[in-house]
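Q: What structure does this chain adopt?
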Amino acid sequence: MDFTIASILALDGVTNGAVYALLALATVLVFTVTRVIFIPQGEFVTFGALTLAVLQTGKTPGTVWFLLALAVLVALMDAVAGLRGGRPQGEVVKSVLKTLALPVVLAVLVPWAAPQQLPLSIQAAMTLAIVTPMGGLIYRVAYESLADASVLVLLIVSVGVHIALTGLGLVFFGAEGSRNPSFWDERFNVGVLAISGQALIMFAASGALILALYLFFERSLWGKALRRGGTLMRRQWILPLFCAAMLLLPALPVPDFWITQLNYIGLSAIVSLGLVVLTGVAGLTSFGQAAFVGVGAYTSAYLSVTLGISPWLTLFVGLALSVLVAVVLGALTLRMSGHYLPLATIAWGLALNYSMANMEFLGKYDGILGVPPLMIGDMSLGSGRAIYVLIWLVALGSAIAVINLLDSRPGRAIRSLKNGTTMAEAMGISTFRYKMVAFVLAAILAALSGWLFAHFQRTVNPSPFSLSKGIEVLFMAVLGGIGHVWGAFLGSGMVKLLEDQLQVLLPKLLGGSGNYETIVFGVILVLVLKYAPDGLWTFVQRWFPKPPRDRDWEGAEALPSRSKPSMGEPLLEARAVRKEFGGLVAVNDVSFTIRAGDIMGDHITVMEFGTKLISGTPAEVQASPVVRAAYLGTEH
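A:
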């Protein structure tokens, strides 16, 4: 592939992208305001294109009569609802006439105008007049009465509407295709490219509509009201929507290749979730997580192939082994800091990978073949579509579990590790303990992904668990947003999809074979760290702001407290303390003793759970019965 062909393909992609950008924007806007995932959006494209094609032949398109039937149905619904609700008859009649006006006019006008072979621009305007009102009428018929239903119910309704419109399209237009003329046949040569007038019109129309929608939603009162309502609904429904969409996807007629890609994205996201906790939240960088994936995969593969143990039982053995390995490695490395810890993770990642590759009973570099599929009763999960739901159930369940963990007391303790240990330890947190918790949790998630990977691939070998794969998983987490749970899914999806496309495109452009995608990923990583250090999820998060958190911790159980020392008991004794900074002596030969009840300072304010008890000199505070009662529990 030379530069000329690449330029032509790029222009074709941009031209099609202008159309798909409008479709994507329309889909987002519909969901933003109504919570409806409007799957039939494609049918409107088909209806518009084929309605124009039928008008070109001088015939009346069937969509005219479909629009009229929808309008009559909605008018009847309004009339019945209005009369039952006690509305004045005049208002009911006015509402019915308003609904029927445009469809009736079109039903009279189009049969006369179609044989006249009017100019293409007028035929396009008639097409818009026929197809556009269908959106509002279909909403009235299919969705309005279910406005308060869940996103899942609305999604199912959308599938039904999609099937119905597809069938009607076959009735109206048949199974044969049609070719429409372009609006502008002129061609312009720009270097090696020949840009058609039709493409310029598409660019202009797409840009104008996007700009108009932006101004409407950003500047107009109605647009702001719709956007505000959509934001509130997004906050409540985005997670159920995402989960429902991902779990229902295999039921749709999507290619098996998509399912396979999504399986790999889900498996990578599970590992990346562990890095979100370990690196993004706890601040402990690890390059060796792929080795824990190997622990889970090899354990299940060996036990199920060699010993014939059920894969469902090997899961628990693999998780237990990964916990054991993580505890041993954590005890050896988690007390390190700075650049020593990442270097240590590289070391044990290499050690684990080479151990797998050189063990005779694990098949060395050939690995283990013939791993049995997961079974649920008599149903096999051996195919990609069959195991898809299990992978994404685990991935989404892990994400929800991590969110709840990070919102708990242990989660807040883990969050405190990122900015150093001094403050956390001063608050009574065992930093090493919570580092170990984060490390073990990341290992568990990686091993869980490895178990799924082994029974999805049906074979294991050392290559997918190498150091380079550990770096790739870390890259996914950083790209998506190392401190954000859903960034793990975004980063995994982007890397897997880009990797697949670049492996095909770059060798053709560069005229040779090689892993050229690593060059692109390296450049992307530098740019992301420079211009979006918190990852790409921060940009997505602007569309899905967090709802204000409910204040639900007033009744939380108090943390356990230790017995307090008696008044005057020594707490801290320092003798001949000296501190130097290079040649500068900051402190020299300083000794002091602090006893229980001693107060250091000239003026002191004593607070209890945010309430001021007393303010004054140390002597006044020490003599205060209120302070004594608060400290000792009784006055002395």
